[in-house]
Amino acid sequence: MSALRTSRPARIGQYLALLAYLVFLAFPFLWLISTAFKPAPELASLHPTWIPEEPTLANFRQAFDEQPLLRAAGNSLVAALAAALIAVVVATPLAYVTARHRGRLATAATGWVVISQAFPFVLVIIPLFLILKNLHLINSVPGLVMVYVVWSLPFALWMLMGYVKAVPAELEEAAAVDGAGRLRTLVSVTAPLLVPGIVATALFAFVTAWNEFFFALVLLKTPEKQTLPVVLTHFLGAEGVADLGPLAAAAFLATLPSLVVFAVLQRRIAGGMLAGAVK
Amino acid sequence: MGRRLVTLTAALALLLTGCAGGDERPDDGVVRLRFQSLAWQKESVDANKQLVAEWNAAHPDVQVDYVQGSWDSVHDQLLTSFEGGEAPDIIHDAADDLGDFAYGGDLADLRPLLSERLRADIPARSWQTTTFGDGIYGVPFLQEPRVIIANRKILESSGVRVPTPEKPWTWTEFRQIARDLTTFMGPDRYAVAWPLKEPVSVSLNLGVSAGGALFHLGADSRITVDFTEADAVVTGTVHDQVVVDRTAPRTTLGSGGSDTLPGFFAGKYAMVPLGFAYRQQIAQQAPEGFEWTVLPAPAGSEGLAQGVSPQTLSIAEDSPYKKEAMEFLDFFLRPESMVRLARGDWMLPTGTAALADPSLHTARDGWATGAEVAERLRPAPAQAVRGYPEWKDKVATPAFQEYYSGAIDAAELRRRLEEDGNRVLARYYRK
Asked: From the list A45, A65, A137, which residue is nearest B262 (CB)?
């Protein structure tokens, strides 16, 4: 324990580094908020300010007026929630089996799913498009959900394997000695300890799907189905010209669901982790 | 647990089948055309939607569904859609993006479909921008010259000669005027700011005014790069303004057009060469009392000529309703409609009837200057060059960026564009 003890200057240095990191992380988001509330002349000022001198909601009004943001957010929400749910439902048993029953096949399978993450989108999009077309799943949210599940599954599997490995096998053996069956052991002993991992994985899958742009762009054809990241690009013109105020307003609104989900689930993750630690 | 899992799986399966997208093909005899538009500014989107609504009201048997795309991702999206056989029937794009799709057989040859009215209304030089091989693969309908947006007060109080389309600055005169203006403006201020985040199209298209072409068609039907003295006129002027004269700041070289506006509004730069449509941003964002004017780009041996890659409307080869799609385009591009679209996008129509509309010749917001320049626009030099995107990204963009910033000299720029560039292009013309 004494090895963890640090001197006062070192601790101050750590806090300063942490603060700098937080500022670094927060800067784009704070700037986005600031931009969203600025009127057009302030956006084009040579001396930008953090706090808008004449804050306005005009950018929000314009954003909602010009683009169907609510409908797009609804589509994104359905796709992201479904993708997160299915990803953890599929990945959890897979991760358990792969983590507990090691063998050449499991190792090879794990290696393959991790390597599959290295493929760029453009490499897979055309075959994927053709497959989904044959399945009549082009321009449908379920088709998009399937893609998102497939895309997030490898990393979800990888994450959950780590959580499964962190649960001592001795606990399951002790439950078996106490007379619990296989299913009872999984439900009563292992599953509660995996909850934080499952929540974290679901969160990862949700955010990945919520932010995804390219698949949604290519697979969804009609305006009614388009997701939020696709609709956000409608504020961009040729050669990088942007309708900056409404774009910032819409982008700010687009970050809110992720923040809410994080805020709600963060306590669950932390609480679950602590519970595991105590055990 | 097992039962729960089965129930969950069944529920998900139901969800999947219940939400699956239906067949888009109509069974009621009404033809439905999907029109993907890249209009993005409110006035432009409104104009597009209004025209579609007017068509739909007048043609109950041919209905057009408006779909909004985005300039940022249109190429990748179309590429995938064509490969998957799911492309929109009517496609909005830019002429310089059509080549691959035209040669790839993805776009319909419009020659048998075009109406005489449309064919006659749009000048031959504009049709050249969408002609690939023997076919015409898009209707060019909006175009955007590069102009110089200037701070009127600085310009007039400095006493320099203000150019007009009839008597524009030459490139040599422009350089001298930039020196005079910078001296007049004082320290830390510059006569001109060049936003050259995308330096290739600016260099090539403005270079046309001095006779620059860069790409040359050989007797063997292959295109090669040859950086001539004519090509060096515009590029040399920009380089010298940044590196030698210091009349243009180095800092804006990596900027997009919008990034230079705060400095322009603050009087840090007197002039910014920009696309014609940037006027909308300036009109919206300029502080109260800021006076601006639109000047023609300087002229060279070819006068005010410059290269341009118009916005286009094409029809997908896979569309089963090409005739109906063309009828819609003919309606959509009537002169009065072209004027509405042009005003919505703050651009200029290609159609001669639309271009003659008095509303596009007012002095307000510089429309008249643009309309004068429009008659001198020519196809962008890179228009039909196979391999241009790769040449641009791998060779030309870094070479121009380094040249303009002073990192390399003109000889090295020329070597890279020709030697390295021709190696890239050779692969495309070997096939």
From this structure: A45
Query: Mind listing the pLDDT tens digit for each residue in B206-219?
Result: 999 999 999 998 88
Token representation of residue A95 = 């991760």
Q: Which long-range contacts (CB under 8 A, 24 or more apart) does B409-413 make?
A: B410/B232, B410/B235, B410/B236, B410/B239, B413/B227, B413/B235
Q: Higher model confidence: residue B18 or residue B395?
A: B395
CA distance B51 to B337: 7
CA B272/CA B266 separation, integer angstroms? 13
Of B86, B88, B256, the CB nearest to A239: B256
Interface residue of A121, A123, A214, A221 to substitute, partner B, most B CBs within 10 Å: A221
Give contacts of A225 with chain B, Cβ < 8 Å. 21
Is the complex ipTM more than 0.95? no
Question: Do residue A126 and residue B83 have CB atoms under 8 angstroms apart?
Answer: yes
Contact in structure between B313 and B333 (CB atoms under 8 Å): yes
For B20, the closest of A44, A142, A222 (CB atoms) is: A142
In A61-100, the residues whose Cβ lies within 8 Å of chain B are 62, 65-66, 82, 86, 89
CA torsion B248-B253-B257-B259 (nearest 10°) is: -90
Distance, in Å, from the CA atom of A41 to the CA atom of B284, rounded to the nearest integer, reads: 8
Rounded to a whole number, what is the distance in Å from the CA of B17 to chain A's nearest CA? Answer: 8
Q: How far apart are the first and last CA of chain B?
A: 61
Q: Which residue has the higher pLDDT, A259 or B322?
A: B322
The answer to whether the CB atoms of A238 and B15 lie below 8 A apart is: no
Chain A: closest CA distance from residue B8 (Å): 9
Q: What's the rounded Cα separation, in Å, for the pair A254 and B373?
A: 42
pLDDT in tens, A138-163: 889 999 999 999 888 888 888 898 88
Q: How far away is chain B from the Cα of A215, in angstroms, using its nearest Cα?
A: 9
Q: How many CB atoms within 10 Å of residue A218?
A: 28
Distance, C-alpha B277 to centroid of its chain: 10
Query: Token match 């929540």: residue?
Result: A199
* Closest partner CB to B40 (pick from A142, A213, A235): A235
Residue A40 CA, chain-centre distance (Å), reads 32
Q: A120 and chain B: CB distance < 8 Å anywhere? A: no
The span from the CA of B312 to the CA of B215, in Å, is 23
Contact A44 B262 (CB under 8 A): yes
The mean pLDDT value for B85-109 works out to 93
Distance CA(B90)–CA(B333), nearest Å, equals: 13
Reported as a pLDDT band with limits 50, 70 and 90, residue B124 is very high
Please give the model's pTM, rounded to 2 decimal places. 0.82
Q: Nearest-CA distance from B287 to chain A in Å?
A: 6
Write out the DSSP string of B267-332: TSEEEEEEETTHHHHHHHHSPTT--EEEEEPPBBTTBT-EEE--EEEEEBTT-TTHHHHHHHHHHH
